[in-house]
Amino acid sequence: MLTAIIVEDLLDAMQLLKRDIETQHPELKVIDTAQSVVEAAKALRKTQPDILFLDIMLGDGTGFDVLEIFPDLKSKIIFVTASDEYAIKAFKFAAIDYVLKPYSNEELAQAIERAKQQIEPSKERLEILKETLSAPEKKPDKISLHTLDKIIIVNLDDIVRCESDSNNTMFHLQDQRKIFVTKTLKYFADMLKPYGFLRIHQSHLVNLQCISAYIKTDGGYLMLKNGENVPVSVRKKAEVIEILDQMHR
């Protein structure tokens, strides 16, 4: 049997999660609960569970404060967060799993299954999560890219463009590296749009800072600073021209 500790500052939410785990996941035994950073520290000093359900916002601090007290924590972590677009963005940038409150039974089951299999998030990925959550309006410096066998952390400014490869995405970086990620181009287009990336074609997303010129011949394409040419779709032409005009004003 696996053990679990729940850290959640709202009593009703904590009791609900505890009941859901006990009724739907008999393989998990909830050995303790905590409603604050202080209580969580006491519980984890007694024993480190197999899985730690960790709320981000606690009355006396955050879930990150708990992790800083236990830098060598061996528990698998399932972050629990309220539905908040900034929080979701932060988790996506860090490539860290989370459960959104209110969650469905299926979502909870999937999170527990993933936690059983997951490798601990690196300190750097937790740092990306923490920074993106603490300054939601600021452009994140880094993004974690989930490849088939590992997670690679990349500076946002080092991404030249992304290219669709059926339901996957190929990242092209300034240093010529290519990183194959098992998520769709739409996923990254939505995520990166606020930070100077533009979907110029069904198959292409580009970093606006890497554009050298828009060439109107041959159906219209972008010349990038690294010498590559990327096609612009007919329906995106007007938007591309307008954005490039604004950039050069």
What does this entry show, briefly?
Helix content is 34%, strand content 33%. It has 249 residues and is α/β, with parallel strands linked by helices.
Record keyword descriptors for this entry.
2 domains; 8 helices; 249 residues; alpha/beta; 17 strands; Rossmann fold; 5-stranded parallel sheet; 5-stranded antiparallel sheet; OB fold (Dihydrolipoamide Acetyltransferase, E2P)
The end-to-end distance, rounded to whole angstroms, is 64 Å
Strand element count: 17
Largest sheet entry: 5 strands, parallel
CATH class of the largest domain: Alpha Beta
How are the SSEs placed, and which strands pair?
Elements: E1 2-7, H1 11-24, E2 28-34, H2 37-46, E3 51-55, E4 57-58, E5 61-62, H3 63-69, E6 76-82, H4 85-94, E7 98-101, H5 105-117, H6 123-134, E8 142-146, E9 151-155, E10 159-165, E11 168-173, E12 178-181, H7 185-192, E13 197-201, E14 204-207, E15 211-215, E16 221-224, E17 229-231, H8 237-247
Parallel strand pairs: 1-2, 1-3, 3-6, 6-7
Antiparallel strand pairs: 4-5, 8-9, 10-11, 10-14, 11-12, 13-14, 15-16, 16-17
Helix pairs in contact: 2-3, 4-6
